[in-house]
Write a structure and sequence with these properties.
2 domains, 14 helices, alpha/beta, homodimer, Alkaline Phosphatase, subunit A, five-stranded antiparallel sheet, eight-stranded mixed sheet
């Protein structure tokens, strides 16, 4: 629990004011050519520029300087949770990513189909990148596995990837990966580091024994390894920490899952930004806080497609008037991390933040871009403090001390 | 004890150099009109602008991003104490505000005169906002209350507000408010959360029984409720933490009280800024550090009076040459928090800081205002680090490490 959340617990105030957090995934970028602008600076964004002129800019650091975050820590930071305090295991993230609703009793595991040879050594760690249509049928077979004392769920993700969930009392999440990270050796045995995790390890062992029998004729996917064995972190609800009724409008399941982790209501987002805007309008009276997620600034960055990331940024800009027409008290446009097309990956570069509110103190910035954000009034700050700014600018915090 | 104070304890150095901390209460502001300047930016401040050109600017965050501080946390931060570590209860602040000198054995309580009906239920939580001339006489009667083992002090504040202090060995400050925050119910019984606080609660109970008898014919003020029951925080003296002989020149008792909390000497401030400047000159040789407090940038902000806050800022600017004539080694002009006239209240917006010293590294700023402060050389920093800058620029800190 961070220091700021200690305060927001005490100082939170119920009001009718509305906060919109518009997250353009991977928003921050880099110039492709020396002397050029970033994706955001190259995009024509008249609506965001107008807000930048009236509001205030800044840069947020998702985790720590130099650290490139995954989607989990990136979003937890935006929601006001210290991503170093609340860590999300690979298995949990994989389950969130397929809309699987985890309970506090669940252990989630990322599975990889693999190939083993006659000696039981791994010959291919990804089972020849087995096709999804085959792997999904194998998952259905594995989903039939029964182990006394726990419920077993097996769900296919994509190609060789799957999710296994064990649900039962007294399980722990502190079990090693069974993937040895190389071929020519057998999978590692699961071992629990404490009592409850030893119980989980025994269940993993039973599951793997049954799986070996079930899959024995399914070369190349004749076994699986387990990774990221973990329980979901015990994240206090947004409603408790900030007193907010929060709704999430996200097209992709991973981001719905992250919103679910902090106990937001998950609203039907449809498939397009227009659908999302329609949902925002329809749900306007029901919530104080809206998390709206836009994926394509990240995926185009990951693809290394600079012009397409520019185009997607312009698409985002075009939805701004629809949000402003609802009269939010505080609108924040930002990302969960940077994804420069130049790098084709998430990066550590600080993330542009645009905060508009009638109570924002203006700065000298007149357009939304990384270079202007450097001299923005919010300064450079840890992402976990963004919620403090949001709450304050919406008049949802009492004074601290007399 | 904060990290910086760990260091200043070890590295402090006695010198003849002088530091002046000029606090314009509530200094930071907001534009009233879109595209306009803040109060500080609108004010004509040629003297501070000249210092800004030679010195360096910055912005301080009193507590945490988004948190609007009261006067207590605001000033503790300026004096170098983490306001989250040293919290000041309402009763203590009320006692400080009437120049009552608290000892470490004192429990201070904010009292509110209230009206109770024949059934003992509260019918008015503020006793019809009883007039000060009546309430002060009632306080004199209550001041006669005797309780074995403790000294009792009752002092009138204003209208229905009073301060009660119990002085004795082994008291605790962890007692609930007796004000039920609504009418039609009796006051709550005081309950202590630990041994020493149980003793305090018993004394509160005895006091309230006697008060009920004494006030029984004094409708509408025929009882009182107790709030903010607390002992003063154990704040280490400024002399020990920084090795400073510090003098406070504040017209208003609250700020003398806050200075007393960190063991400054309280100097006679007179009534006007001119009086304060005369005192500063007269005491110049006796101290290393002067805290000079100017109230009216806050009170005009609280009133929502933008032009008057501008005028008061100009009044402050006019005193700068008198300070500079004394040849301070380091002069800091800042506030304890922002009080934008637009909001008529304290706010979370970071606070403009101007630091002048012959050793200040210049920045590109050439006038003192919020927008310029964003790009000032001190950056944006937690207020509790300001004393580090002050000490350094006055040559009062040795090198850390070899």
């Amino acid at each position: 629990m961070s220091d700021l959340q200690d305060l927001t617990r005490k100082l939170q105030k119920q009001t009718d004011s509305k906060i919109v957090l518009l997250v353009a995934d991977g928003l921050g970028g880099l110039p492709i050519e020396k002397g050029g602008g970033t994706e955001l600076e190259t995009a024509k964004t008249p609506n965001m520029d107008a807000l930048a002129k009236e509001g205030t800019l800044g840069l947020s650091t998702p985790v720590l300087p130099g650290i490139s975050p995954g989607s989990g820590p990136g979003h937890l930071g935006l929601f006001g949770y210290d991503p170093l305090e609340y860590q999300i295991g690979r298995g949990v993230l994989e389950a969130l990513g397929i809309d699987f609703e985890l309970t506090p009793d669940d252990v989630a595991i990322r599975g990889n189909f693999c190939s083993i040879d006659a000696e039981g050594n791994i010959s291919d760690r990804r089972a020849g990148r087995v096709k999804s249509e085959i792997a999904s049928k194998l998952c259905e077979k594995l989903d039939q596995i029964e182990i006394p004392g726990v419920e077993v769920f097996v769900r296919h993700v994509k190609e060789y990837r799957l999710v296994i969930v064990f649900r039962g009392d007294g399980l722990g999440g502190n079990v090693n990966d069974t993937d040895p990270q190389r071929t020519g050796v057998p999978p590692l045995a699961p071992v629990g580091a404490d009592g409850p995790s030893q119980r989980t390890a025994e269940i993993c062992t039973q599951f793997l024994e049954q799986a070996r029998e079930i899959l024995k004729d399914d070369q190349p996917a004749n076994l699986l390894t387990m990774r990221g064995i973990d329980m979901k972190p015990n994240v206090p609800p947004l409603s408790e920490v900030y007193g907010l009724r929060a709704g999430a409008i996200a097209v992709y399941p991973m981001y719905r899952g992250l919103a679910r982790l902090v106990s937001m209501d998950i609203l039907d987002a449809g498939q397009t930004l227009d659908d999302q805007m329609a949902r925002l309008k329809a749900a306007w009276d029901d919530y104080d806080f809206f998390f709206v997620h836009f994926k394509y600034t990240d995926s185009t960055g990951e693809d290394g497609n600079f012009p397409e990331k520019v185009r997607r940024t312009e698409e985002l800009d075009a939805c701004i008037p629809k949000i402003m027409a609802l009269n939010p008290d505080c609108l924040i446009v930002t990302g969960d991390h940077s994804t420069p097309a130049k790098m084709k990956s998430h990066s550590w570069h600080p993330v542009p933040v645009l905060l508009w509110s009638d109570l924002a103190r203006p700065d000298a910035c007149d357009s939304f871009g990384e270079t202007q954000c450097i001299t923005g009034g919010l300064g450079q700050f840890p992402a976990k403090y963004l919620m403090g700014f949001a709450m304050a600018h919406a008049g949802k915090l009492e004074k601290f001390g007399a």
